[in-house]
Amino acid sequence: MKRLSDEELTGAYKKAIELELESHFVAMLRAELELRGLAPPVRQAAASHVACSATGNEDT
């Protein structure tokens, strides 16, 4: 994992989530992000749902 730059690791994590890869692999990437002190990127769909839920605007 140390051969990946922070940007490459973040991109790999995003892609693994997008492709719904095995949870163990995603967890391994997430653990490396946390070891490096990086916040795992938030999925866009999840972020939109949270924002809509907070405003009570579920249909958006």
UniProtKB/TrEMBL annotation:
The organism's place on the tree of life at top rank = Bacteria
Kindly give the InterPro entries that the UniProt entry links to this protein.
Answer: Sda (IPR015064), Sda_sf (IPR036916)
Q: What is this protein called?
A: Sporulation inhibitor sda
